[in-house]
Amino acid sequence: MMKPANSNAAAAAAAKDGATQEFVTVFVGETMFGLAINRVHDVFIPTGITPVPLAPPEIVGLLNLRGRVVTAICLRRRLGMPRAETQGAGMAIGLEQAGETFGLVVDGVGEVLKLGPDTHEAVPINLDARWRNLALGVHRLDGKLLVILDVDGLLSFGAERAEPTAA
Amino acid sequence: MDDLLREFLTESSEHLDTVDTELVRFEQDPNNETILRNIFRLVHTIKGTCGFLGLPRLEALAHAAETLMGRFRDGMPVSGASVTLILATLDRLKAILADLEIAGTEPAGSDDDLIEALDRMSAGEVPAVAVAAPPPPPEPVLPPPVERELKPGEVSLDELEAAFLAAPGPDDEPAPLPAPASIPASMPAPVAAPVAAALAPVAATPAPAPAPVPAPAAQKAEAPAPAAEGGEVPGKVQTIRVNVDTLEHLMTMVSELVLTRNQLLEIARRHEDSSYKVPLQRLSHVTAELQEGVMKTRMQPIGNAWQKLPRVVRDLSAELGKQIELVMLGAETELDRQVLDVIKDPLTHMVRNSADHGLESTAARVAAGKPARGTIRLAAYHEGGTITIEIADDGKGLDLAAIRRKAVERGLASQADVEKMTDAQVAKFIFHAGFSTAAAVTSVSGRGVGMDVVKTNIETIGGVIDINTQAGRGTTFTIKIPLTLAIVAALIVRAGESRFAVPQVAVLELVRVDPAAAQKIERINGAPVLRLRERLLPIVTLTSLLGQEATEAETQTGFVVVAQVGRQRFGILVDEVFHTEEIVVKPMSSKLRHLSLFAGNTILGDGAVVLIVDPNGVARQVSQSAQAGSIPAEMEAEEVEAGEAGEAKTTLLVFKGGNGAFKAVPLSLVTRLEEIDATKVEWLGGRPLIQYRGRLMPLVVADETIQIRTEGTQALVVFSDGERAMGLVVDQIVDIVEERLDIEIAAERSDLIGSAVLRGRATDIINIAHFLPLAYDDWARGPRRPTKVARTLLLVDDSAFFRDMLTPVLKAAGYGVIAAEGAERAMAILSGETRIDVVVTDLEMPGRSGFDLVAAIRAAGHPIAGLPVIGLSAAVGAETVDRARRLAISDLVAKFDRSGLIAALTEIDAPSLAEAA
After folding, report:
1. 3-state DSSP call for residue B544?
2. Which residues of chain A have a CB within 8 Å of the CB of B596?
3. How far is CA A29 from the centre of its chain?
4. A-proximal residues of B, 383-442, CB under 8 Å
5. Which residues of B touch A59 (CB under 8 A)?
6. Residues of the signal sequence (chain A) (predicted)?
7. Which domain range does residue B272 map to?
8. Taking CB atoms and an 8 Å limit, are B546 and A161 in contact across chains?
9. Domain containing B88 — which CATH number?
């Protein structure tokens, strides 16, 4: 088996070990993405989003999820995908990092898949650089490909931007 | 016993801290009996408790120290050496306490060295004074608590108490009750002690004897006085220790309660006739009171964090051989205990730094004509929802040259970058890890650890640290800590589509404005202002601050929230004001913390998340845009130059053009901003034109993707040169910013000069030279001077930006332009093949300046030496003019003054052409 191209890919490594993993599948446009289930805290319909003026483009706004303030991030914009033609309500995946709650806004949420190493592939090298950095691997499914996303990678943006104005 | 021991440990370490501070004060003010009594009493307490708990080492040490202090009380002169000795003893006590805390028993070891020294010190003066009846020196070594009751110290305590607690009768029965009995009584009181003691020196000083006031009472309760048993003390302050986690939890619960109450109130607001209005009102009051109470438990005066500093400074003063005075202002400023804990160590570190690096040696100070005694000033105060702490010294200031050098050595920045940086930016290098310019590493500081940690610590609580340094005058560090984790009253307002919360502390009043009413917004060159009680108040619209479009009508009506931050007053125009609400400030997401306009966010009663506007952030923006926006165009040029000289800032007009991208152009090049009716655009020969001020003005799009609108209004940026004007079509005019211009990415496109980060946004700087010929084919060819012989001009400027900006202007004026980025290159060109007719040079350049270049030109051989030279300068002072005259520089022109430059060139042309003829 090929070595995973992305070395920080803990999930990919686990997959290599032969353990099956569970992924929550989400859709953006036609593409299906997988998020490690242990990172997903919530699935909810984002309502009442307060936009944040001057915020980085990835950030849709802030919303109240059961008394917590959640930063909503648009997966579409995060991945640099074109704007959707129809703006549906969408769904959001609740993620946590360093004590903060984020909501990853997607077009739709699919089922939970249990996948083994047999269908796992490294990230194709011809992918867009942005995607390469955020993907941990690809699973070959029937008639579809599932791109596994690196949750920490998704949430690590804006830090470098925060510097100049803070100083 | 375990609990008792723990109590003892906390209590004793607090006492010792207080003694530390008090001793330093006492040393400076040896005649102040109140301080001495205070110290004496605290040490005595420790001694007594140790005896009870069976801690012989501590007891013996404390006893020896107490004895020496007893001598002071009896009139022995206080010397620096004796205070140092007592301080050393206190340190030893602390060390033993620390071990005790870990091991649960006293560590083995001997303190004979210290005890002996203490005894010698006290014995030395005994005969001289001999007032104290039982001179105790011979028996300090007796450790076991058995002999306690007989100890002379006991007697002197009673004397002491009789002396300073004369008033409350029941207490001073001099009964030699065994100390043990008193211990349980003093247990519940420990917190009162440090608080009272910390505040008491001031508060209690005037009223030691006659007073049954709480302060002495607290002191009383706290001393192991035998009589403290029976609850007889009237004003005794009862305190208990509570685990911080408990308080934190309580705080969280109260926050939730406040939110729930708000939700209920919101519901009640909608249902008019509800019968639960009254109980709800009651609930609301109770909640408010509860909240206030819980908040109070978390607040502590910042003086608690400063307690150790007098001692630190005293020791440093001795160690470094400098005279240092520590001034502390605003010690009563209260702040959240959590915040207090975090800043405690950074503050100590910074004070050390100031003492070691900041202040010069006494000799150097005297040589510089300063007072021999250096001052470190600590000040704390509330300001617009934040707490500001300043640490200032009157020392030599930061050695910016050394920092620049070091920054380059360490590869933090290139030489060129460092040269371009402002002093304030350079000073910030000291926050880099491992950065130290200290020539020598002292035990105090200079190891290059610290300031980065200080910065990190402060930033973790959302604070900001800033440096202001003046050579020879001193350095001031300003720390601003926002009040996060707190509940604040806020005004809920609407601006555009969204609601925002404005903290009420910053709000002075609300003014309704309406064009039809008496209060209306007026404009000075587009900048909105409001007449408020015979004063002009600058106005900002919240929507425009937030980068949203605001129509003219919107900026006429609404409410002005009059706010004050520091000494700056301004009005924030909002569309609607709803009500005030107690909000729980939730910190901003880490992804959004860089937005200085927001202090945090909160959840309102109706469940919506709203952003909390930070009045400080707004104030900063107001002063910036006020400077840029309200000044007439000519003055603006000066403004820019002034900024150029000091901070090297450029005022730029930011607009949106093409796919929402931000673009900018130097404001000095812009003639006017217009919003035209889109139907006025006419098309002639496939090119868009408008009738503008009686002439036809061609329009050019700022980006190919921009569609000229067919309805509504169209934003234009008008550039003009002489009689010609061109309208640059943009999507939206966003802002005017004044910032240092760092072109980061050189563009490959001819319509862009490059990209820069402005206000945290990547922004393209457009190249006007690209657009001018699009409007007039002949603009670049200089049709107005058809007779002119092509003359070649050498343009010398270190900034690529200015070279790029001036080149098209000069070309348009009919010159062949050769650009050089420095004096060396310029000399090479001059001595080369190409014939140069005139030199235009920037006078302020890094390395060899423009003056050096001109001097070199004048010193060169025949054809070159006589060349006419025009100097470009950001700041034209008398000295510059004088120097320029000596070097026969034909003219001095301000850097942004294009027409001035052209005029100067024309002037040169006339005589030189005549000569040629």
Report:
1. helix
2. 165
3. 14
4. 428
5. 589, 591-592
6. none
7. 244-298
8. no
9. 1.20.120.160
Q: Do A54 and B589 touch (CB under 8 A)?
A: no
**Cβ-contact B149, B36 below 8 angstroms:** no
Residue B48's SS3 state is: helix
The answer to whether A87 faces chain B, any CB pair under 8 Å, is no
B376 and B476 share one domain: yes
List, as ranges, residues 114-153 from A with C-beta within 8 Å of B: none
Report the CATH number that the domain containing residue A161 is assigned in CATH. 2.40.50.180
Position A1 in a domain: no
**How many pairs of residues across A and B have Cβ atoms under 8 Å apart?**
86
The CATH number covering residue B592 comes to: 2.40.50.180
**Residues in chain A closer than 8 A to B586 (CB atoms):** 69
In a domain, B237, yes or no: no
Q: How many domains does chain A have?
A: 1
Q: Please tell me if residue A74 touches chain B, with a CB cutoff of 8 Å.
A: no
List Cα–Cα distances, B386 to B301, B381, B503, B530, in angstroms: 15, 9, 11, 27
Instruction: Quote the CA–CA distance of B481 and B382 in Å, as a whole number.
Output: 10
* Strand B535-541 relative to strand B568-574, pairing: parallel
**Domain assignment of residue A2, yes or no:** no
* Burial class of A69 by CB neighbour count within 10 A (0 to 12, 13 to 18, 19+): buried
Best mutation target, B589, B662, B735, B740, to test chain A (most A CBs within 10 A): B589
**A76-87 core/surface letters (b: 16 or more CB in 10 A; e: else):** bbbbebeeeeee
The per-residue b/e assignment along B867-898, b for 16 or more CB within 10 angstroms, e otherwise, is bbbbbbbbbbeeebeebbeebebbbbbbbbbb
Q: Which residue type sits at B197? A: A
Interface contact A158-B591, CB threshold 8 A = yes
Give the closest of A50, A158, A165 to B609, CB-based.
Answer: A50
CATH number of the domain to which B909 belongs = 3.40.50.2300
Please report, in tens digits, the pLDDT of each residue of chain A (167 residues total).
444 444 344 444 444 555 788 999 998 888 899 999 989 988 998 888 888 888 888 898 998 887 778 999 998 888 888 876 666 668 899 998 877 889 999 988 998 988 888 888 888 888 888 888 888 889 988 888 899 999 888 888 764 443 333 33
Tokens of B50: 């140790």
pLDDT band at B236 (very low <50, low <70, confident <90, very high): low
Would you say residue B235 lies in a domain?
A: no
* B82 and B154 housed in the same domain: yes
Q: What is the count of structural domains for chain B?
A: 6
SS3 B174: coil
Do B598 and B656 have their domain in common?
no
Which residues in A lie closer than 8 A to residue B591 (C-beta atoms)? 55-56, 59, 71, 73, 157-158, 162
Find residues 488-527 of chain B whose CB sits inside 8 Å of chain A.
497-498
Chain A residues within an 8 Å CB radius of B760: 54, 161, 164-165
Q: What is the ipTM of this complex?
A: 0.78
Packed helices B277-298 and B244-270: angle between N→C axes, nearest 10 degrees: 150
- Residue B238 located in a structural domain: no
Res B636 pLDDT > 50: no
Q: Given CB atoms, is A56 within the 8 Å cutoff of chain B? A: yes
Its domain, for residue A105, covers: 21-134+143-166
The domain boundary, picked from B433, B465, B482, lies at B482
The minimum CA-CA distance between B821 and chain A, rounded to whole Å, is 28
Identify whether A44 is part of a domain: yes
- Whether B603 has its CB under 8 Å from any CB of chain A: the answer is yes
How far apart are alpha carbons B365 and B300 in whole angstroms? 37
CA distance B183 to B196: 19
Q: Is the dihedral of CA B674, B680, B683, B689 positive or negative?
A: negative
Q: Are residues B470 and B325 in the same domain?
A: yes
Given B181, B197, B230, which residue is the final one in a domain? Answer: B230
Residue B24 lies in a domain: yes
